[in-house]
């Protein structure tokens, strides 16, 4: 176990990163906690419920500095439970979109009510709620920094990115990371809003770098968003082609297709496949046989000779182009 101080680095004037000691295949080298400002600081993502990490955040304060605001990108257990622990020590208010499920789409609200449960909600911090709910465009500022909130659901319904306005850098949480793609595990994860939010960032030409929830800074965050968007469309196309040959199950497809993915991450990959299949089902192009899960069989609603015919391909491309 490394000493907390050795995980504290300065990334830019007025911005430091303290990495939590929770490395894993899902969290990479650990959760990134950001300390923004030089006097009245913002702490972004205090991380897991780890008192040693909270102590390290407090020890990182220099003379004349105080924690004035706590921001949370989303209510996963590796990002948000530390917020209340930190608040107990410093009294600062907590800002976020809302509780974990507060931004759930109508489609996934219905799926969840119908019993869709992949068992991934163990990673959801159900106890989390902010003192101040934020919406897109809300700005919180101090003398030497200014953050603008952007709701970016898809990885989790309450996910937000925070725009640091002077360098136009984006705190991206788990929405955009440099080291990996994001997990989209329904019903918390939702393929369409994820792609829409990604596209919105990809289209911005005014952004500089990204500071993700895990891993190193992203040099050009819009370019990375575009790459991730195209990558997911490419995966979607692979699913379309597999459906041409016959029924598809998320787990079998992930095993056959995600050749570079470590075995331990195959279920996460299968969640992403299921997220896309559910979207196809919403569009009435396929149907699920039986209760939804990673082993569910999905079948075309149109005959095989029509599945990749020009009109259907065009329809899929038109639908995907909206995202
Ligand atoms: Zn997450």
From TrEMBL:
It comes from Rubricella aquisinus. PANTHER family: ENDORIBONUCLEASE LACTB2. One of its GO terms (molecular function) is hydrolase activity. InterPro entries: LACTB2_WH (IPR041516), Metallo-B-lactamas (IPR001279), RibonucZ/Hydroxyglut_hydro (IPR036866), Sec-metab_biosynth-thioest (IPR050662), WH-like_DNA-bd_sf (IPR036388). The keyword Nuclease does not apply. Residues 30-214 form the Metallo-beta-lactamase domain. This is Glyoxylase-like metal-dependent hydrolase (Beta-lactamase superfamily II). Keywords: Hydrolase.
């Amino acid at each position: 176990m490394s000493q907390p101080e050795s995980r504290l680095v300065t990334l830019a004037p007025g911005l430091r990163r303290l990495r939590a000691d929770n490395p894993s295949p899902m969290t990479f080298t650990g959760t990134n906690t950001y300390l923004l400002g030089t006097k009245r600081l913002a702490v972004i993502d205090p991380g897991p419920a780890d008192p040693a990490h909270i102590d390290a955040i407090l020890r990182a304060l220099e003379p004349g500095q105080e924690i004035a605001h706590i921001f949370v990108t989303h209510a996963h257990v590796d990002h948000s439970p530390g917020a209340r622990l930190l608040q107990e020590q410093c009294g600062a208010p907590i800002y976020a979109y809302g509780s974990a499920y507060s931004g759930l789409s109508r489609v996934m609200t219905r799926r969840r009510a119908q019993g869709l449960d992949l068992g991934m909600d163990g990673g959801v911090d159900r106890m989390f709620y902010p003192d101040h709910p934020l919406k897109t465009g809300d700005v919180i500022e101090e003398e030497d920094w200014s953050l603008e909130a952007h709701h970016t659901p898809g990885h989790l319904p309450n996910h937000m990115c925070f725009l640091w306005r002077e360098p136009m850098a984006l705190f991206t949480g788990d929405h955009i990371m440099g080291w990996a793609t994001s997990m989209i595990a329904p019903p918390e994860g939702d393929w369409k809003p994820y792609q829409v939010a990604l596209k919105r960032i990809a289209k911005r030409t005014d952004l500089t770098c990204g500071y993700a929830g895990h891993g190193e800074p992203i040099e050009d965050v819009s370019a990375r968003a575009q790459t991730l968007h195209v990558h997911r469309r490419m995966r979607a196309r692979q699913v379309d082609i597999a459906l041409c040959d016959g029924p598809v199950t998320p787990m079998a497809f992930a095993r056959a297709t995600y050749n570079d993915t470590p075995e331990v991450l195959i279920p996460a990959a299968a969640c992403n496949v299921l997220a896309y299949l559910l979207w196809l089902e919403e569009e009435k192009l396929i149907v699920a046989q039986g209760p939804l899960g990673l082993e569910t069989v999905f079948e075309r609603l149109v005959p095989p000779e029509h599945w990749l015919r020009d009109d259907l391909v065009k329809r899929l491309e038109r639908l995907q182009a909206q995202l």
